[in-house]
Amino acid sequence: MKQYFGDSYVVFLRSMTLSLQNPIWVLVSIMQPILYLALFGPLLVQVAGVPGFPVGDSWQVFVPGILVQLAMFGSLFVGFGIVAEWRSGVIDRMLVSPASKNALITGRVMRDVIMLIVQSIILIGVAFLFGLRIGPGAIFASLVLVGLLGAAFSYFSYAAGLWLKSEDVLAPMINSIALPLMLLSGILLPMSLAPRWLQIVSDFNPIKHVVQALRSVFRGEYLNFETILGLFLALSVLSVAAIVGNLAIKSQAR
Amino acid sequence: MPEIGTMINVRGLKRSFKTPKGVIEAVKNISFEVKRREIVGFLGPNGAGKSTVLKMLCTLLRPSDGEASIAGFDLLRDAKQVRRHIGYVSQSGSTSPEARAGDEIVWHAQLYGIDRNEAKERGKHLFDVLDLEGQWEQKCGSLSGGQRRRLDIAMGLIHQPELIFLDEPSTGLDPQSRANLWDHIRKLREDFDTTIFLTTHYMDEADALCDRLLIIDHGEIVGRGEAKTLKSQVAGDNIKLTLRDNRDTQKAALCSESIAIAQPIISGNLVQIMVKDGAASLPKLAAALNEGGVEAIGIEVSQPTLNDVFLSLTGRSLRD
Cβ A85–B96 below 8 Å, yes or no? Predict the structure, then answer.
């Protein structure tokens, strides 16, 4: 266990350093949340008056969706990085070391989550400039939820990258999974605006419940059914993802 | 660490892969031994199963059958100890192009539980030994092919393994860098007492580096021994005829039948004839060609090479 954390930390340190040494990566990562907010926010504020729109201030409804979108799209594409690392021999080299195999993935997921948290803080900060008002408790709770979700997507993406080992296959696969998940999560438009059948379909999408949990946290409701369900589902998805990710790295040596 | 005489002991190693077309037996029942401080090479054409064996011995691939002990540890039951005691330099490299060389080696050392300061010290020493002075701060992607390969070797040596596996070490390097790399590999044994096991499909590399060779083809070891011994087992010398055009090659091959000890090999306007004794056969061949009305524009007698060894063992050339 001690070795697992130690090795994870080394892998984290390595991937974080490599990321921060790339100025374009840093710039894009910072600009991403700002662009989401500046280009899409004003549009949704207009929609907020429509009947059926969830309760709460329009920014309180909208920012949680953008946070989840950030978590999805930031993390789902990390698998590309591991394909490149595999191609340059880095993954095999690490697998031949006595390091914990799970740590090889976990360390990378740690980098992704920390980066996502930083992006989320920037996003919430910019949203304050636009008029969002939430308390420190809500900020903390939303960062936890976003972090859990981001970690889950990172694990899945690394697993897909390690299994497919091809950017050309990975890209359409990620898109074909991410698109329905996103449309059925009420990120762009709240599912409460959808016809009944679509709402039922979306009930099976755990992401939707995480978005709803975030929205209720943003309204200051921490202990209602929605919040607890969202947290529970985020933890469940992460558990499954971590198992899948660890299986993927273990399957590299057989 | 117990002092052991046998560094690698492989018994009946097999590996098959399932593909849509059926099961492919990449490695069929391979057994061999490598002693401490030996440099042993796996020589064979691409696709012969060299890398598959190497990956199995490095714990990257599970054998379908058979057993092996590496540096005194059982490959299957004690894989983690095996990993601690071996270094592996893969064909595809070991570093990210964006990473600084020094950072990469220190991080790698940390995965072996070596602390940062110790790792830096060892890494800098290895950089000196492998002619990488001044490259510590450089990005791996900006190093030359030869430098990057030496960096890969430094990475593989950072935890001071007793045994290092090199997969096709000089592939893709220019002749000068290759010769330089070979010097460095030979020095590893002198400097660090390292046992070296390498794969190659270049006979000059096998000739230049290895104390002993295992010749592998279609997943089986078809010959083994010192390069010198293997070559002396090949029955004769080679005569290479260069002809004016392709039409003459058939005629020349026909003329040589009386003295050749194997079917002559025709490639382009060249004919390769295997004879018992090159010097004695030459006048006979010249007479036969004269009689047949074939004029050779070049004639060359050569001692057997490892390619001839491979040819006599498998009926094919290494380059095929």
Answer: yes
